[in-house]
Design brief:
Layout (H helix, E strand, L loop, with lengths): L6 H11 L8 E3 L1 H7 L3 E5 L9 H10 L3 H6 L1 E4 L3 H13 L3 E5 L5 H9 L3 E4 L4 H15 L2 E2 L6 H17 L5 E5 L4 H13 L5 E7 L5 H7 L22 H10 L2 E5 L1 H15 L9 H8 L8 E5 L6 H14 L3 E9 L4 H11 L3 E8 L9 E9 L3 H13 L4 E2 L2
Parallel strand pairs: 2-10, 3-4, 3-6, 4-5, 7-8, 7-10, 8-9
Antiparallel strand pairs: 1-2, 11-13, 11-14, 12-13
Helix pairs in contact: 1-8, 3-5, 3-8, 5-6, 8-9, 9-11, 12-13, 12-14
């Protein structure tokens, strides 16, 4: 059984995907280059057809089905990106597709999958649970399961992204890849090392609340997580695939994990400085870069894996990123409950160059004296240093600033 794509096989896959998958651009980021202390380039798969890299593997896998298998149709499981890749590939190839998505999957991803012509069914809370039902559907109907990452054709299709990086940034020193099941990471590593050589460092990045790879590599087999918790649904995979795990173990230098706050800050930076909208999973690589400034062998290519994000989620995540970056401050001040104290407090905040967003009063706390009130103020600031200045100045002015 073939478990590692050769350079020739990846080049054949690239030819098969010509006119199907877009050769996505690379964009150099001055802001990230300054943070990292070396040249940083973004590989923009968020601009890919279907909004992510997934069309590469899905199309290649489905194009290689026999005529009879294509006639019976396919079934897949996904939180959204693989779903759209399968649906788009199925429409292109004229194959009927059923996709199982977890309950609570992002509505735009569900709508896009349906828009490409697939039948969408919801099952379970995770991709892993949805995949169980997809396999049951395949047993009942004879459809072929298009696994999101655990098949050599999927890995080979994703490897074409690595081939593009090798051609677009031939002097690349490090490639950072957000990782769920590992199909993209395995493919990119295989392609880069086959084309450029083993000196290129490939780093996988997982959300801290969904990091199955470190333990799986340590034990030499896929090890499922007992639970997962992350907003990065595109990499929320509880168990690595056997095929990618074999490749990753041989080809990938190391793994990094990033927190939800770090992902949020990375999304904020990409939106503000790079003018790129990505989903949380796609920002994981940038989060890892920011977590370890000055520690990367350059030039560094960071893969932005997808841009399929619900606008409501984007609003919440960016707000979270603003808080994590010190752009919002919440303070609570205890003062006498008499006229004029609120006006004086707000004037003091204004004099410090901060913008008041909301004001709330608390008069029912058991620790309050009968003539006291807690005033909770949400303030827009210019960053962490400004936050500290505001708090210190209020305290110097005699205001007892309480934990917010």
């Amino acid at each position: 059984m073939v478990t590692h794509p050769t350079l020739e096989e990846i080049e054949v896959a690239a030819a098969a995907l010509d006119g199907v998958a877009t050769r996505t651009p690379v964009e150099e980021s001055g802001a990230l280059s300054r943070f990292a202390g070396t040249r940083v380039v973004l590989k923009c798969e968020n601009l890919q057809r279907g909004g992510s890299f997934k069309i590469r593997g899905a199309y290649l896998r489905m194009s290689r089905l026999s005529p009879e298998e294509q006639r019976r149709g396919v079934v897949a499981a996904s939180a959204g990106n693989h779903a759209q890749g399968v649906a788009l590939a199925a429409r292109t190839l004229g194959i009927d597709a059923v996709v199982y998505m977890p309950e609570g999957a992002a509505l735009p991803k569900v709508a896009a999958t349906k828009g490409y012509g697939a039948t969408v069914r919801t099952h379970g809370r995770t991709v892993d649970e949805a995949l169980v039902e997809a396999r049951a559907e395949a047993e009942r109907t004879g459809r072929t399961v298009i696994h999101p990452f655990d098949h050599i054709d999927i890995v080979t299709g994703q490897a074409t992204l690595g081939l593009e990086i090798a051609e677009q940034v031939p002097d690349v020193g490090t490639v950072i890849v957000p990782t769920g099941g590992g199909g993209l990471l395995a493919g990119v590593a295989a392609a880069l090392h086959a084309r450029l050589g083993p000196h290129v460092r490939v780093v996988g990045v997982q959300a801290a609340g969904a990091a199955a790879y470190p333990e799986s590599i340590a034990q030499g087999r896929p090890v499922a997580l007992a639970e997962m918790q992350t907003m990065a649904d595109g990499i929320a995979i509880g168990c690595p695939g056997e095929v990618p795990l074999q490749i990753v173990t041989r080809e990938v230098e190391r793994f990094e994990t990033v927190s939800e706050e770090e992902i949020s800050r990375a999304m904020l930076l990409l939106t503000e400085r790079a003018k790129l909208v990505v989903e949380p999973s796609a920002a994981a690589g940038v989060a890892a870069l920011l977590k370890h400034p000055g520690e990367w062998q350059g030039p560094v290519v960071v893969v932005l894996t997808g841009g399929n994000i619900d606008p409501l989620v984007l609003m919440r995540v960016l707000r979270h990123g603003l808080v994590a970056a010190g752009r919002y401050l919440q303070v609570k001040v205890r003062v006498k409950d008499t006229p004029g104290h609120l006006a004086k407090l707000l004037a003091a905040v204004a004099d410090l160059g901060a913008n008041v967003l909301t004001v709330g009063h608390v008069r029912t706390d058991a620790t309050l004296a009968v003539d006291e009130v807690d005033i909770a103020v949400e303030i827009e600031t210019r960053g962490a240093d400004h936050c500290r200045t505001v708090v210190e100045s209020l305290r110097s002015a005699g205001y007892p600033v309480l934990p917010g």
